[in-house]
Q: What sequence folds into this?
């Protein structure tokens, strides 16, 4: 039995070492990309047009001429790029704009991640609505979604205050996870074979514990790979919708400052607004609170001083008695 147990442990250590061995990563060319970035648009005139493919489609699709795919274990490396966008736009009605963006996301095959409507105050004291929304749309429809959001404004050149499109290439991470997954699955298969052929109860229990640990790692890696696949297939777009009243130009005696002058005037206005607000708070809140706290101490001080003076007066008024003979 001891020889059998030693043999099982030896095989077990061999399996675990093989499952943890690192595999070299193979750099993949930009064969397929989820979504369309602005840099890709500049290359459209030099590269053949290819439709965006899903993760499952890419493994089975034919390789276009001139594009090439580096193969690892006879499987093409899938290029995964997570593309997201962040915009701030000015619209007439932020609430209506939020509703239209939400409706478009559903019609495009996506969904709404989060939305929020709140009130903000302009520099003139006017309260206006403002909204934020985050949606996910298929990566191949990212540019169409951005064009739709731009169309919500009166003048995209002026009313799109900011726009940022970011891309994260997770091909290396995905490939590493795929290699680890294959190694762990092989290790799990070998562990199951050891359990089936072993007659040592103690050894079977030990192998079962190791198999449970390997299975848990497999499920974690599958979850990470699924996250990368879904994030690359569905682009996230975050939009902040501001009302037109919040970006009205400043007019001083008929003069409409622009650029640095406008920012300086706005800062000066905000400074004096803040200064006046501080004075109002001091006069109406802080000073009355201080007086309320100090008044009892002042009255106690007056009472003690009155007692001291009265005691001195009583000593002076008391007659002097002659000493006893």
A:
């Amino acid at each position: 039995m001891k020889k059998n147990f030693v043999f099982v442990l030896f095989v077990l250590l061999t399996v675990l070492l093989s499952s943890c061995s690192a595999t070299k990563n193979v750099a993949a060319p930009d064969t397929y990309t989820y979504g369309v970035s602005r840099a890709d648009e500049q290359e459209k005139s030099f590269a053949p047009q290819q439709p965006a493919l899903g993760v499952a489609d890419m493994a089975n699709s034919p390789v276009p001429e001139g594009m090439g795919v580096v193969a690892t274990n006879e499987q093409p490396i899938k290029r995964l790029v997570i593309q997201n966008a962040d915009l701030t736009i000015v619209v007439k009605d932020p609430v209506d704009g939020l509703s239209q963006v939400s409706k478009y996301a559903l019609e495009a095959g996506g969904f709404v991640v989060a939305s929020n409507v709140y009130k903000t105050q302009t520099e003139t004291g006017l309260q206006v609505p403002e909204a934020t929304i985050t949606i996910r749309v298929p990566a191949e429809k990212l540019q169409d979604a951005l064009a739709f959001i731009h169309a919500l404004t009166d003048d995209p050149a002026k009313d799109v205050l900011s726009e940022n499109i970011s891309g994260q290439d997770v091909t290396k991470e995905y490939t590493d996870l795929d290699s680890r997954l294959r190694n762990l699955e092989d290790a799990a298969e070998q562990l199951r074979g050891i359990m089936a052929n072993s007659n040592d109860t103690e050894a079977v229990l030990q192998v079962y514990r190791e198999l449970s640990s390997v299975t848990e790692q497999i499920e974690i890696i599958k979850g990470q790979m699924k996250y990368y696949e879904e994030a690359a297939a569905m682009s996230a777009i975050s939009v902040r919708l501001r009302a037109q009243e919040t970006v009205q130009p400043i007019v001083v005696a008929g003069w409409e400052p622009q650029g640095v002058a406008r920012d300086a005037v706005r800062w000066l206005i905000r400074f004096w607004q803040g200064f006046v607000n501080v004075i109002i708070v001091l006069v109406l809140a802080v000073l009355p609170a201080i007086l309320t706290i100090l008044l009892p101490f002042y009255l106690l001080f007056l009472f003690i001083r009155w007692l001291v003076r009265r005691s001195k007066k009583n000593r002076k008024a008391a007659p002097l008695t002659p000493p006893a003979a």
